[in-house]
Design brief:
Length: 476
């Protein structure tokens, strides 16, 4: 008898965690089902919506996968997988719209909130959450040195109920619940986030190697997996591929806020890599601009410690990521916490992007007013905006505008809306102005909107690296 070389002659069929009962499969398209079995094992698949059985054979490593056409049916379905030694039946499978949401703690923030950090509107949302046409899948927080074939902590799809939604991503839930109600079809939302994570952690080794040399150690995985390059991609993204999705929602950036220029490089390549690996084309990628927060003060005007630089970088990523959209949050921050409680408003703005750009609701506005150009007029500067088709709006006096002359010293400025789509900015101490900045600091409450109450982002008309603020900020 040989000892130490025992091998099972017949291995039971194994499915990835995300392929389970209660799942939502992307409707009316080719979806991929996959798993593992014994080497060259013959597998028969019976899908309740198909007239014929599907037969396939595992490869010489025991891997198998198959593409199956789904329909627009709203009826629950079954899928059975059978081999010589085992059978798996998945029940209550729906066809609908599948979205993945990822990022760091603001995406992770559950509907019930964090301790002493609420999610506004959560109690009523939880009370009304029971919905058999809304399904949730949550990925546990685990890091890995190498890419995993399946999630290391098993999970499964769950139907939306007060019990299941309370601990689920608030943004993910609000987005999915409203999308399901508007479209009238089942919706599945996959949540895979980790607080304080960096974008590097969500990027594959192949992509990160093109930017920098790095070594992942066991200690990294134990102590700081959420800030270790590739660690979360390996364990929290790779095992989900190639499960068919419609698009991705992303809320991350605080973990990289001191390196905005690097972030502007990394986020687009992360998106491109995910799209290539999923093989679904340029699926929608809608993301959230980080919200204002004090970050210990506003004294870092000229360096990336000022989070306005990161908000600028995120806005500029729109031009670098095809089929993308951004949710601006300059009016939704919280001075007390980096986790603003208005998560439904964030989800709404992501939803507006999806409705208009993905689902064809062309009357749903989704683009915030954006700086376009400026001209000097007498002792003031006129700032012109695009994406303000119905005009600009402010609830009260415009605030947090600044103006500078050639000396690059910014003064707090008065500002007023003129001609509906422009803002006039001026300060009596700056008689020859050349540049304007808006909301250019860590903590700010946005005051400039379009008439659909989408707020303008932080912006600057200059690219100075040595600008300063006047010592006394009380004069206008």
């Amino acid at each position: 008898m040989l000892i130490g070389s025992t091998q099972l002659l017949h291995a039971d069929i194994k499915l990835p965690s995300i392929v389970s009962s209660n799942m939502v499969l992307q409707r009316n398209t080719q979806v991929t089902l996959w798993g593992w079995a014994d080497v060259n094992e013959e597998i028969t698949i019976k899908a309740s919506w198909l007239d014929e059985y599907k037969k396939l054979k595992a490869d010489d490593k025991g891997n198998w996968r198959i593409d199956i056409q789904t329909t627009n049916s709203k009826e629950p379905q079954k899928v059975s997988f059978r081999s010589k030694t085992s059978q798996i039946t998945l029940d209550n499978v729906l066809f609908g719209e599948v979205w993945l949401c990822s990022g760091q703690s603001n995406m992770f923030q559950p509907l019930k909130g964090y301790n002493a950090q609420p999610t506004f509107g959560s109690t009523m949302a939880i009370a009304k959450s029971s919905n058999p046409n809304l399904r949730l899948f949550a990925v546990d927080r685990v890091g890995s040195k190498t890419p995993l074939k399946d999630l290391s902590s098993p999970s499964s799809w769950k139907q939306a109920t007060p019990e299941t939604v309370a601990s689920f991503s608030a943004i993910g839930y609000f987005f999915a619940q409203q999308l399901q109600e508007i479209l009238g079809v089942p919706v599945g939302i996959i949540h895979t986030s980790w607080g304080a994570s960096t974008v590097e952690a969500w990027i594959s080794k192949e992509v990160m190697n093109s930017f920098q040399e790095f070594v992942v150690t066991d200690e990294d995985i134990i102590k700081k997996p959420n800030r270790t390059a590739t660690a979360l991609f390996n364990s929290m993204i790779k095992p989900l591929i190639p499960y068919n999705i419609k698009g991705v929602l992303w809320y991350q950036g605080e973990g990289n806020r001191n390196e905005p220029n690097k972030y502007k490089q990394l986020l687009p390549v992360m998106v491109k890599d995910w799209r290539n690996r999923w093989g679904l084309g340029d699926f929608p990628f809608y993301y959230v601009q980080i919200a204002p927060y004090a970050y210990g003060g506003n004294d870092a005007y000229t360096n990336p410690q000022n989070s306005a630089f990161m908000r600028e970088a995120q806005l500029e990523c729109l031009e670098l990521i095809p089929n993308s959209g951004i949710a601006i949050t300059t009016d939704l921050g919280s001075f007390e916490t980096i986790h603003p409680p208005k998560k439904k408003e964030v989800a709404d703005r992501l939803l507006f992007n999806a409705l208009n750009q993905t689902y064809g609701f062309k009357d749903v506005d989704f683009v915030a007013p954006t700086y376009e150009s400026h001209v000097v007029k007498n002792d003031s500067i006129i700032v012109n905006f695009k994406n303000a088709e119905m005009g600009l709006f402010s609830f009260n006096e415009l605030e947090d505008f600044e103006i500078a002359g050639e000396d690059k010293v910014f003064y707090p400025a008065s500002a007023k809306i003129i001609n509906q789509k422009s803002v006039q900015v001026f300060n009596k101490n700056v008689t020859k102005p050349v540049a304007v900045r808006y909301a250019w600091k860590n903590w700010v409450i946005g005051t400039l909107y379009d008439t659909n109450l989408l707020p303008a982002s932080s912006f600057r008309t200059d690219r100075w690296e040595d600008a300063t603020q006047v010592k006394s900020m009380s004069q206008k």
